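Good morning C.,

I know you're traveling, so I'll keep this short. The sequence:
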Amino acid sequence: MRGMRAAHARLDAYSHHPYPVTRGERPSGFARGVCKYCKGLLTLANLPVLLKEVRRDFGPKRIWLTEYGYQTNPPDRFGVSRSVQAKYVAQAALRAKSARFVDVLIHFVVRDEPQLSGWQSGLFSAAGVVKPSFNSFMLPIVQSARRPAHDDLGPGAPGQGTALVPAAAAGARPLGLDRPPDPD
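The tokens, ready to paste straight into the viewer:
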């Protein structure tokens, strides 16, 4: 960022990969205190810092989070459980949706790579088995109510009259998209 600013880069949008540094790092913060490896790193857990840095260096630019994901165990022994991955996928989408200037959050990757040395954050296993995160990804945010009197977001909040919740928490299921993508 600093080099781009010094070179007077002109941007329409700023793209960033806010991957977690450790498996204890949640999209909304850290599970066990402050991450000792995270100083100076901009992850989804410290999204407000990323927003502040982009604004300082480039002004009020749109932000695209172009790669994000949690590896799963199995198969990657350093990954989170598949149920935790599903929870984090929903939390990440909700966090990105509610962040000012963030327009895009792209999950990486759709299907686990077959080699364990590769990336294992897919919504499907390498063999094509659907992981619980698939449902979280398909409908990351749903309306829980439509009655104007119901307001979980606070007075004057965008979408007042509805409550936005992660799809996994609401028991949402995708429609007709329950098979793995073609391997081609």
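Safe travels,
E.
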